[in-house]
């Protein structure tokens, strides 16, 4: 079972040949399950709502990717901070040890 999201038949479900989506098979057999919406305004509303929803889904994917990248940057910033602290401690401890050895 498939769902049409064309402007002419938005949300209309149909059965299609198992090869319907395979362009190399060139099978275009299908049969609608639902009745056609007869009022154009309903068709337009349904089509536009679906279009808007798909746009929101794409935006959600994009925002999730941005969050993931931001989390990675924050992890990298923390790692750099810890490396700086370790380097600072090594320098301080080395200088303390050298002073103790020479005095």
UniProtKB/TrEMBL annotation:
UniProt cross-references to InterPro entries, sorted A to Z: Znf_GRF
Example GO molecular function: zinc ion binding
Organism listed in the record: Lactuca virosa
Membrane spanning stretches: 82-102
Segments forming domain GRF-type: 1-36
Keyword annotations of the record: Membrane, Metal-binding, Transmembrane, Transmembrane helix, Zinc, Zinc-finger
Superkingdom of origin: Eukaryota
Upper classification of the organism: Eukaryota, Viridiplantae, Streptophyta, Embryophyta, Tracheophyta
Listed name of the protein: GRF-type domain-containing protein
